[in-house]
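Quick entry between incubations.
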Amino acid sequence: MSNIGICGAGLIGASWAVGFASAGYNVLVYDKNPNVIKNFYKVVEQLADDIAIYKKINLKKLKSQIMICKSIEEICTESILIQESILEIIEEKQNIFLELENYSPLETILSSSSSYLLPSKIYKKLRNKDRCIVAHPALPPHVVPFVEICPSSLTSKEVIERAKEIYSKADYVPIVLKKEIEGFVLNRLQGALLNEAVRLHEEGYASIDDIDISLKHALGIRWAFLGPFEIMDLNAPGGIGDSFTRYRKGIKRLAQQQNSVPEYSNQYIKKLEFEQRKRLSLSDREDRTKKRNKLIALVRKLKLDEGE
Amino acid sequence: MSNIGICGAGLIGASWAVGFASAGYNVLVYDKNPNVIKNFYKVVEQLADDIAIYKKINLKKLKSQIMICKSIEEICTESILIQESILEIIEEKQNIFLELENYSPLETILSSSSSYLLPSKIYKKLRNKDRCIVAHPALPPHVVPFVEICPSSLTSKEVIERAKEIYSKADYVPIVLKKEIEGFVLNRLQGALLNEAVRLHEEGYASIDDIDISLKHALGIRWAFLGPFEIMDLNAPGGIGDSFTRYRKGIKRLAQQQNSVPEYSNQYIKKLEFEQRKRLSLSDREDRTKKRNKLIALVRKLKLDEGE
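Done. Structure below.
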């Protein structure tokens, strides 16, 4: 199968590598930091454990499909897509893409994992912008089967279609933004909920524990299978139209009340830190992260078993 | 075990009845509409099927614990809590609670399933407001293990504690609002996300399909186990404080952009209806609802198996 280049081999880069390799792609990895490279295969092994929960994998074969390269040029020459996963600093991304543009053939898709930078900014300095996209994964990207593709107005339709196909083959479910917007879809939905969670907590309506419970023991169980529009369709006997007609007054009233901008002051963040550490010690965070990954993999398995 | 009174035997009332009875309570049910009563045990049987996915139940025994009563008085005399689940019309709720107050002993907790009406309004006409709460479940309430208790400023602390205990024994995870607010916690979080979903769709950034995918294949898989604060705690190496310090600038920028109030015009709702019906025909909605309930029960089982 084809080659995928990975530029930046931290957790996101390693996740992409495992995701692509487990779907059969050959993956070429580069990172300028030798320490990152030193730990790379160990991280790959840990990530593969989670994937094994829902997908048969041969670890030896998987690792053999992931090659560490010594120069940025090596990951470029024969890759159909290069996934950049370096730090979220605009200047660094702009500069690394100048290199990637120089070393790669024009058919290679250039793709950034940025979670909020707009493609029109990331690729500002490049000559050929038609082959450039953002493809933002969801944490932890080795088990969450999602990628949001954000093209700029200069990205070609053919490139968008090809990118969709490449990510689909690697078992990601790709969505495509119709025009670019800060935060794309995922972080805008998440941000809207997070800002409201903070308003409810900071203004004294509920504890962080109770707000977390509302999500994980109620809303989140539904949202693991159904999006907001699908849920509205099942919420009234006549379907989505009936549902929005019944509830629009209430939903609009909420929108009118949910327009303050939380401060996120240092003092408030310290308070959050204090309350959170009472629930989970810093030393237990790593175990919790591992459990999170396992649970996500188990839900993914359940969804696959149920044809969802 | 003790008696629970259920006033209003539609889907919400039936769900409560099954929830309480499956935990061992004796349930006394009243509805003024004979047609609702006629179908009641059939609905109970359907709901019990879903519960059986994660909990052993004896259907015969369960049904024997649920008694249909012929008058509102009968559900009141010996119940420790009366759960009202009639239509969401303030005048009707106010009036039915006048009756429930008259027939029930002072120790009985009066509880409304309202999803958005404030307890201070629902119980305005009552003499003894210290025993009154809203206890709002999450759809579908026979499988979602959640209830949000909203007291008014006049509700006694002892009543809140007793209510928490009663719902906990029936396997609901109760949260308690510290002061009343429209939409409580659940619908405020849901509304914030829904309004942003509609903005993204109506302003042409993404399709309803792609927005639904962002939730069900990404955000929702995490949210089935972790609330917004728990997620932030795992999102940066130093924990929640580190996380909010890194991302607050971006989150605040989103809050500044997410303050418009969608119109929800008839024309827009018709457009939604049209797009949704292309994905799922009206005649397939019932099957999808059944599948939703099954999937939620399966996730609940998974969470119980994993100690979550």
